[in-house]
Amino acid sequence: MQEIKRRSKRAARGPALLLARAGISPNVVTLVGSVLTASVGLLAAQGWFVAAAVCLWVFALTDTLDGALARLTNRVTPFGAFLDSVCDRYAEAAVFFGVAWWYLDRADRVGVGLAFLALVGSLMVSYARARAEGLSYHAEVGWFQRPERIIVLGLGFLVAPLHPAVLPGVLAVLALLTTITVLQRVAHVYGLAGTPTKAD
Question: Whole-prediction pTM value?
Fold first, then answer.
């Protein structure tokens, strides 16, 4: 996965250069990319899963593009990183909400439940890292970070029209592996922080 991230950064340099020449701000790219990613939830809510898969993967590339643009234009700022994280969470929540809406419209309680469990797990992965970093601990560890979640969910969307049972299975996998990732981060921070000593 690290190799994929490195290749994505290299591939983003060309488009980032064009955006820099056009005078477009990295924060604008963040906002536009997040709105586009969130719109995947609308596709999922309609059951247009193949389109949702393609758009999810394409729009997710903007998450690399804004960072590349910020580095290229020397506009890397704490606020930019903060905005990126906040927008990512909203966009991801919108996608899962769209899936939940699809199942709710069909009175499929299991599907709705799995969608929300996957959403909670995804948000908690990000929260665990953010809380750890707020305590000055590095916690970018674990199996299912955002790129893995996007790839797996996109695959679930892609196969869903042919095999409807695949998507609930993918949601269950996401719910399980995101929870494991949270536990990995908790264990990692525990190891860094050490066992607290009792007061005398």
Answer: 0.88
